[in-house]
Write a structure and sequence with these properties.
This protein is α/β, with parallel strands linked by helices. It has 14 helices and 13 strands. The relative contact order is 0.18. The structure holds pyridoxal-5'-phosphate. The site of pyridoxal-5'-phosphate (PLP) has 13 residues, from helix 3.
């Protein structure tokens, strides 16, 4: 089976495992794990933030950030396709008692002009708007990245309105690989950033939450209350260090391979269109009447795994464990008609 379901399916390489095996460990709740401390230092430094917190998942880093920035009854502005809203188990309501204002934007990205009209006035009828969150790259948008000018505009609007600005950067390195914005300049636009180490970067576990010293101090309390404070976490954090040091530049290969998949899919009678590929995600719209589940199962019979991605859509994702040879197999084995 060649696995295009997600960039989360990668397994740590032997080199990464050796590096993890040798990590120096301590009790991170006491702040004593030198490997966790090193990962947090590296991550914060890369994006020019003061501090970082290593957490078990990207859902946890996002949910901690939302909890720090909001009070129960507040409203969070995000895209209607945002992971924080669609794929985190209702965590915004469950963990933080907050509600959402969903914007339509384009391809999973918020349009800066939409934001001002959706900030609630200070009036007893309305929930207080207290956070803006965006996703870069935007998963349901087909892995597209933001124009940096738009990010700067949103950041400015947030500052003018006293709103913190959060980035769900599950695939932020895929975006940065393409837009070539210097990391610190990019990082400076946000008050908090979640970075997944277990997606394209290929670490087995974990995400980093970045922000100011004050923010991370609060985030640490919330992580504890969510049951997410870990002890000798350096054993897994080491995978994150290895990933940041070895697997960032190579994301360009994943993007090249995703473009190749776009080409292959475009020739198939059962595909009506493919969202133009920008990074490592390929979303195909199926021809009229085809069900995504049927198509996913047919493709599975050819030894290829992908996922249904909403009605009449399927998604392929490229990652560290996909080779050019796998692409040749895909090209050979994908059926011409279904
Ligand atoms: C994967 C993902 C996350 C975090 O997912 P976890 O599985 O909890 O690590 C957050 N945001 C987006 C856009 C994602 O794709």
């Amino acid at each position: 089976m060649i696995d295009f379901r997600s960039d989360t399916v990668t397994k740590p390489s032997q080199e990464m495992k050796d590096f993890m095996f040798k990590a120096e460990l301590g009790d991170d709740v006491f702040g004593d794990d030198p490997t966790v401390n090193e990962l947090q230092r590296i991550g914060a430094e890369m994006f020019g933030h003061e501090a970082a917190l290593y957490c078990s998942s990207g859902t946890q880093t996002n949910q901690i950030a939302i909890n720090v920035w909001t009070n129960p009854g507040d409203e969070v502005i995000c895209h209607s396709d945002a992971h924080i809203y669609r794929y985190e188990g209702g965590g915004i309501a469950l963990n933080s008692g907050a509600s959402v204002r969903l914007l339509q934007g384009n391809s999973g990205r918020i349009n800066p002009n939409e934001i001002v009209d959706n900030i609630n006035p200070d009036d007893q009828h309305f929930p207080p708007t207290t956070l803006v969150s965006i996703e870069d790259t935007a998963n349901r948008g087909g892995g597209v990245y933001y124009d940096f000018e738009d990010i700067k505009r949103i950041s400015k609007i947030c500052k003018e309105n006293g709103l913190p600005f959060h980035l769900d950067g599950a695939r932020v390195f895929n975006a940065l690989q393409e837009n070539k914005i210097p990391l610190k300049e990019y990082g400076a636009q946000f008050d908090s950033i979640s970075v997944c180490l277990s997606k394209g970067l290929g670490a087995p576990v974990g995400s980093l939450l970045l922000g100011s010293n004050e923010f991370i101090q609060k985030a640490r309390r919330v992580r504890k209350a969510f049951g997410g404070a870990m002890r000798q976490a350096g054993i897994i954090a080491a995978g994150g260090i290895y990933a940041l040091q070895n697997n960032v530049e190579r994301l360009a290969e994943d993007h090249k391979r995703a473009k190749k998949i776009e080409q292959i899919l475009s020739t198939k009678s059962w595909v009506s269109s493919v969202i133009p590929v920008q990074t490592n995600i390929v979303v195909a719209h199926l021809s009229d009447g085809l069900s995504e589940n049927d198509v996913v199962n047919k493709i599975k019979e050819c030894g290829i795994l992908c996922v249904g991605f909403g009605k009449g859509r399927i998604r392929f994702t490229t990652h560290l464990d996909i080779s050019d040879e796998d692409l040749s197999t895909l090209e050979r084995n994908l059926p011409n008609s279904i």
